[in-house]
Please model this.
Amino acid sequence: MRKLAPLFLLVILCACARPSDGPGAGGFYNAKDPRTNQPIPVTRLADAPMTPVMATPLAYTATEPGLSVLQSGGYADTRLRRGDVIDVTILDTGEDGLFSSTQAKTLNLGRFTVDSAGSVTLPFVGKQRVLESSPEALQSRIVNGLKGSAVNPQAVVTVVDKPSSGITVNGDVRSAGRFPLTARKERVLDAIALGGGASSAPSSASVTVIRGKQRATAPLQRLIDDSRQNIYLLPDDQVYVSKDAPSFTAFGAFKSVGEFEFEPGKLTLMQAFSRAGGLLDDRADASNFYVMRNQPVYSQVASASSAAMPAVVTTKPVIYRVDMKDVANLSLMQRFQVMDGDILYASNSGMVDFAKLFTIYQKSAPSAVAPIPGSN
Model:
């Protein structure tokens, strides 16, 4: 018996130090919260909440100003500035006027760009200084310049491009770029539409407006729901759309491991399990599949309207155990909602980890590396 004691000791040591790529089933039941050193409860899926309160990834309170801190009356300045492009058309309704020899009574002079000196040179009227002038004022000056060569001249000046009043749309949009503001007084949602729209869902995107040294941020969904957040834009404003999609992580004995994004409130555990490709038949312990979550803890706080509203004040870790060998769990997985930050872990079968010991010892000793041809 004494001769067998060292052998038993060796088996015990090997079992304690057997190779593994993650915690075993027993490790979850011994897990403790690193902040409080309290045990983390392991709950069966049958006892888990099937309809949890979903915390939106871009949560906010009613008292947060959001983009409203940059509220303005919008851009309505039509004065001409350097770089602006105008289109000029002249008309003459007289019988003996400028166009008496032609059938047409209108003439499009073309498009002209305000130069660095703030001037444009127009046919028939010559060089005109237009910096800080309105299109209407330029029309009057063109008409005065045509008197003598036209009987009843008229002019139409249209601003076709105002680079000086442009805004920039960037980030998670389909077509980023710089776009001009018009007399329509574009708002933030108009700018996002000019950029082709946000690439992600409104519930998982945020919008930042940068105006000089000021900046403000709000969830895109809030802009849609609250018109006060959809502020008017001013020249040189920068609109940046960022993606904040929720995600879950799958690792362990899954066929496909990694981080997976999803739309909040629209992914069940069964769908997440399928995205990870299911379990590896030759590795996974089907009776020990876990969901690790930082469960939000809500408290009732009073809002500005004196009505109670839920607010996340803290989180606590919790572990849910899924036994895939129990058919009832398949139905529960179709009801259990995945939340942002959830971790799905599939543990190895105990026999798989134990078999790795023999794989290690059966490996042949490494041989010497062959010398490079031509080397000494």
Q: What stands out?
A: The helical segments are 5-16, 25-29, 135-146, 188-194, 220-225, 269-275, 327-333, 350-362. The first strand starts at residue 42 and ends at 44. The CA atoms of residues 166 and 225 lie 26 Å apart. The two ends are 57 Å apart (CA to CA).
